[in-house]
Q: What sequence folds into this?
């Protein structure tokens, strides 16, 4: 059972501030790539203990690398492959405690140990994913998932 603590309350307030910063950053900019670039930078600045933050975009039935912060990454991912492709095929967030235990994990960075992937939707179709990797096992919790989903839902309003 999840019990709120001072740490969790503070973490939630920080995420709420992040969402406000996101809206201020993208509300007047119609360009998707510019917004995804700034979203990646904002998350990379906000989140601790992460080694990759970015987007993959759907193009001709596969995910193609989009704006990101981190080391060079896999360029194309098939739907259903790896954590990102699974998020697309299931249309649901994937929060993975240990990527090396995930069947079919695609290792773009050998230092990544945990990952969260949130689908980006438009008109009930997945148009991309937000992908965040960490060099620590079990880095992402329920609060991260909830607020990263809100982050993506906020972004979706401006797509």
A:
């Amino acid at each position: 059972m999840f019990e709120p603590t001072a740490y969790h309350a503070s973490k939630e307030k920080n995420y709420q501030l992040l969402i406000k910063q996101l809206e201020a950053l993208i509300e007047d900019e119609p360009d998707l790539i510019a917004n995804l670039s700034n979203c990646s930078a904002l998350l990379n600045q906000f989140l601790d203990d992460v080694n990759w933050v970015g987007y993959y975009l759907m193009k001709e039935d596969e995910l193609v690398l989009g704006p990101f912060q981190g080391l060079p990454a896999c360029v194309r991912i098939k739907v259903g492959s790896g954590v990102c492709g699974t998020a697309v095929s299931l249309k649901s967030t994937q929060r993975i405690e240990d990527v090396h235990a995930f069947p079919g994990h695609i290792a773009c960075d050998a230092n990544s140990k945990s990952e969260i992937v949130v689908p980006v939707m438009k008109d009930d179709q997945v148009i991309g994913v937000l992908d965040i990797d960490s060099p620590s096992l079990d880095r992402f919790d329920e609060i991260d998932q909830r607020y990263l989903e809100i982050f993506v839902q906020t972004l979706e309003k401006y797509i």
Observations:
- The first helix runs from residue 6 to 26.
- DSSP finds four helices and six strands in the chain.
- The radius of gyration is 15 Å.
